[in-house]
Amino acid sequence: MLIVTCPVCGASGDETDFHAGSEAHIRRPATHDPTHISDQAQRDYLFMRRNPKGLHFERWRCDRGCGKWFHAARDTVTMEFKAFYGAMELPPVELMERATGEWASFFEDKIKAAKAR
Amino acid sequence: MTSKPYRLGGAAGRLIDRTRRIHFTFDGQSMTGFAGDTLASAVMANGQRIFGRSFKYHRPRGLVGLGSEEMNALVGVGEGSRHEPNLRATQVELYDGLAAVSQNRWPSLQFDVGSLNNVFSRFFPGGFYYKTFMWPRKFWKSVYEPLIRRAAGLGKAPEGRDPDSYEHLHVHCDVLVVGAGVAGLAAAEAAAATGARVLLADENPRLGGLADIAGGAIEGAAQLGWVQAKAAQLAEAENVHVLTRATCVGHWHHNYLMLFERVADHDPGLLRDGAPRHRLWKVRAGQVILATGAIERPLAFANNDRPGIMLATAARGLVERYGVAPGSSGIVFTNNDNAYRTALALKAAGVAVRVVDSRGRGGVLADQARQAGIDIMNNAAIAGVETSLGGLNIRSAKIATYRKGSGRVVNETKLDCDFIAMSGGFNPAVHLWCHNGGKLKFDVALQSFRPDAHRDGIRAVGAANGTLDLAAALAEAYAAGDQAARAARPKLKSAKLKAPKASQEVEAPLEALWFSPATGKYNEGNKHFIDFQNDVTAADLELAQREGYESVEHTKRYTTFGMATDQGKTSNINGLGILAEASGKTIPEIGFTTFRPPYTPFSFGSIAGALTKKLFLPIRRTPVFDWHLANAAVFEPIGQWRRAYTYPRGSEDRHAAIAREILSVRNSVGLLDASTLGKIEIKGPDAAEFLDRMYSNTFSTLKVGRCRYGLMMNELGFLIDDGVTVRLADDHFLMHTTSGGADRIAAWLEEWLQTEWTQYKVFVTPVTEQWAQFAIAGPKAREVLAKLEPSFELSNEAFPHLSMKDGKLGPYPVRVFRISFSGELSYEVAVPANLGRGLWDAIIDAGREFGLTVYGTEALHILRAEKGYIVIGDETDGTVTPADVGLDGLVSKKKADFIGKRSLEQSFLRRPDRKQLVGLLTEDPNDVLPDGAHAVKELKDKPPMPTIGHVTSSYFSPTLQRSIAMALIENGRALVGQTLAFPLEGKVMKAKIVDPVFYDKEGARLNA
Question: What is the bridge-based pairing of β-strands A81-86 and B826-832?
Fold first, then answer.
């Protein structure tokens, strides 16, 4: 059973005290451009999920603590959490750089933007 | 089978106390043993060798092991509600009055009808069930399955409610050491010496593992003395907690482990003193040290499962620990040196013994045995055993010359014996290592797998790590204990303990022996058992290979090898050896199957812990719960709530009570406790815009003091909740949700606020339990309310349908909503929860002259069905859109975005042949369709008949005096007027499709 730490209230506990909320950093198309969403974009938003071997980014909620959603970076092989960060934040740059596969391409421009700042 | 007492004379048996005689029964037969005996040793001492019958062939089976590896001697212990099945007799400690029964035999151990399976076993090859019970299909349920279930299976479940208590403990420690043999004690000492908090757990009643029978010396003396001194030292240490009779049953992510402690199984007197029977320790360990030892391998020779054939360590343990001889004349069959210790122990106890060794020569121990006068046959193997009638007893063993890889046996010598002690080497007990993804590597010297890499903070030491040499194991354990403590708490300093000096007889290497050839072929009476518990033989494994089950995981499932409670403890590597030889691959190429938790079974009681009966689930009660109780309410669970279903009076049955309640709502007035209704306050400058996102319809246009029914979808466009939302102020709304959905919907709103529209200034506050809420419904509702001295006007003009008043009813501060779920004139009155009971009583008083009747949830549901109102979860099942239930009008066409909007536009949700909500009237008004009944496109004599929809709600309506139903039917709205057939078991009901609103279609009563 995983040990999860909430970055908002600092509570640390068994995964059963938290709620796993699937993949992180999914963009909801309808919020941004409600009139121009292709069926394909909607399908991808609803159903297409990454399943990497290694570094993964996911959503968790501090169910029995402060009730806040947050993000976690977890290695799906070692089960180790690499970072916990806010619900509206991107992972630390060094983790974005270590991401592989689809996550690597997803973070590409975000790494550039972060470095430009 | 009591021809001969097997208890050795003199002082033999280190653990037993010959001055304390213990009385117990086995299969109803009275027996005696000594304090310190296990059930296994005591039964053996009484001359009883058969402990049970095997799973598939019902072959008689005896004792094989010494501890938790035992796979044959499974017994049921205790009577009635205290009976516990499938316990390993080797782990059951004897106490006065213990009642044990053997399992899987009928009618008796000595004679078993099922053993005919053995006679016909050539017709029961691997995968037999899959091959045989294929057809005719209908035979499966009525013939095959009951037969198989009766013939197979292990113990029986206890009868009645468990009278004992169980508990859970949650603990954290720096270092958990699993197993307290020499290596475990050493590791625990080293870890504790740094100051770390150490938990040391062992499954046996005493510490020391096999040290007492393992030979060798520590600091110049027998291992046992060192073990006892260390056990005493650790018991005294303040930072060490020692647990005995505590099996580590599993290892999960982030070093989470469970220990199953048998607190009172060995002494029922403790139960009377209030001790729990079992305790489940849920341990979060900084670091884990596995010192779980190694398990001896059986050897695969023909009929190696006969009673009297056991592991060499088991034979040695019986003699040295319990003073029990496994027989009067035996053979030690081995491919390694360790088993010579058993030969020496038997010889010393005065039991006749000789050794059959498959190797050319042994080491120092073999020399000692020869000097002790033990006859040793090298390059030899047991080719088979001869038994007395029915295989109950061994008479002799057939010895043949053994050359690795040779096929048939040519020359055999017959040697008389009545037991065989076998040893095929040792497998590190790596089960816990593997539970959580630990890797293994093959060790050629051991001819077995040992721990390799692991992702968690876990180390294996001693025999569990494949380190069988005593000095090396001690050195490794001291180092690991020290490292683990400092890894768990980096600030700790090493105590730099040195491992004590140790010595052990140097052992000659073992030689792999996976299969001992026999005269004749496998199925001509020769069975080389690999997995005893699941009755899997070498022939079954080879057959699986030939049939193409190349992956070892497929072979496992096809043959059931390594499955069930045993988890391949003794069988796994032997099976891989057979598969390797059959396929011409090496064992590492074959790979190994997954070991799964639990290591040994643990009780359901321990899993439940104290969370039974009243503590099973918290019950939520409304503020007027006591009134329901006092008025004979029948309750039903709605989530954690207990709601009143109906209130039968006198001799009334439920149907009559429900009908009375409904008619009184329709004709005069009824009162419902609706307090469980979900209530969420939504407040802030962006509250209206936020609700527009969450609901399919629009709330920003709602006027203050007005109510609106809203539909909530998920992003897939499917309905998840509904309810009336009230605007209390410009920036303040009160949302009602379904009773079961209150928590879920509050969390749902929060999720969107926190993760998508973070710019909104909105607070979401669940207030369900802050308010008691009652519905006063019926044509007389206004008159009842008027009697309660309202501080506001009640006329239809001043207080129309779908509006609310904030004010007082006499002394009670209330919010009154004119909303209706019954189709009648109806007011829902909300009052702070602590005033709920007072107002409830006041309403009942006020309503008396109008015949006010309290109604329950079933009346509520029928009232709403008469009006065609949907219930989320009845008319919807997570795949239903607003349009499907005819509520497309509540989906905004103007709003740019709301949850689910885009998905509703997808083509498959706009198909005309989707199932649509319709009403149904059965041809016979007394026929009530069952919930879930399917309508067929075309009625035929027998299936298959494609179905076009199903009934979602169905009742007998007391108002209409006929049955009514709602259903989701493909393209249903276009089929109004047609008749559908619903084939049921033994009957067909027919119903006409109608509009789902059955009563007061114009809504005149609602707006009265």
Answer: unpaired
